Amino acid sequence: MTLQTTLQSIYDLPLSNAIRENANAFPVLESLHVLAITLVFGTILIVDLRLVGYASHRRSANRLITELLPFTWGAFVVAIITGSLLFASNAVAYAANTEFRLKLLAILAAGINMAIFHATTQRTIAQWDETAAPPFAARAAGVLSLVLWTLVIFLGRWIGFTLDVLF
Amino acid sequence: MSIQTFGDWLYATPISTTFRETTWIIPTVQSLHILAIAVVVGSALVSELRLAGVLATDESPARVVRRYLPWIWSALVVLLASGMLLIVAEPARTLGNTVFWAKMALVLLAFLATLLLRRPLLRDEARPAAKTVAWLLLVVWIAVIFCGRFIAYT
């Protein structure tokens, strides 16, 4: 099965068809998608700014991360589910869209950046958590995360203007 | 002058035409608009969940509100400015749209509730905040987001 036939069979799914046929389905899914993205970005912004060295409502960076990350993850799951449904409704066109592909790459890069931070810098967070300025690695992770998630939002909005087929 | 004639006049102005014809302007302004909404949502989420007694209950409400209220005000300024640019670019899409006016009413409600019920918390540490209001404010912001997206479909 080639990629093209796979995309076509996703498009042909009864669920995809239902999203296309129901006038309210697409805007409702899009609204939930935007809500989820604002929650992801809004909560990650607070954590990233703390990593850059900007004060937050928690003195401890580690405490701030453990307090807000469940919200980021919860919202991210909602964004993935709603995003997948939006994709399914028009799979062939989304897969061919450059901004959509770049958006997936930016999300992947943001994920790798976060994984590296958790696996390395966060392990030694106790050394600076409440007492010192964050080290370069933490500040770099924070800035990179902000840049990548901003890019994700811009690319996401751009898809709406560049997508080939609108049913 | 009715809203209809104002919208028609605005649409015909050179600045409106430029905004529409320069392809990157509307998506860029919309992206900035979403980023600013994310700042409001993140700030409101942490503040209101603190006031609802869910998050960071060992920190004083005043301390949490003091941290996030300036972000809400700054983001609202960005939202107002970017929103006005979008109205200038496409007056008919917004000014003649019921969902747009519903969104404006909800934004005004959220703004007034934040101004009248959240700002006083900064000065008075002991002032009690109603948990119901905190949940209601979060619901209003969510409704604002739904209205914003539905403007494109009505």
UniProtKB/TrEMBL annotation, chain A:
TM regions (residue ranges): 32-52, 64-88, 100-119, 140-159
Origin: domain of life: Bacteria
Annotated keywords: Membrane, Transmembrane, Transmembrane helix
One family name in Pfam for this protein: DUF6644
Ranges where the DUF6644 domain occurs: 30-161
Protein name: DUF6644 family protein
Automatic annotation (TrEMBL), chain B:
Keywords, sorted A to Z: Membrane, Transmembrane, Transmembrane helix
Pfam families from the UniProt entry: DUF6644 (PF20349)
Ranges of residues in domain DUF6644: 29-153
Superkingdom of this protein's organism: Bacteria
InterPro entries membership: DUF6644 (IPR046586)
Chain ranges passing through the membrane: 24-47, 68-88, 100-117, 129-152
Protein name: DUF6644 family protein
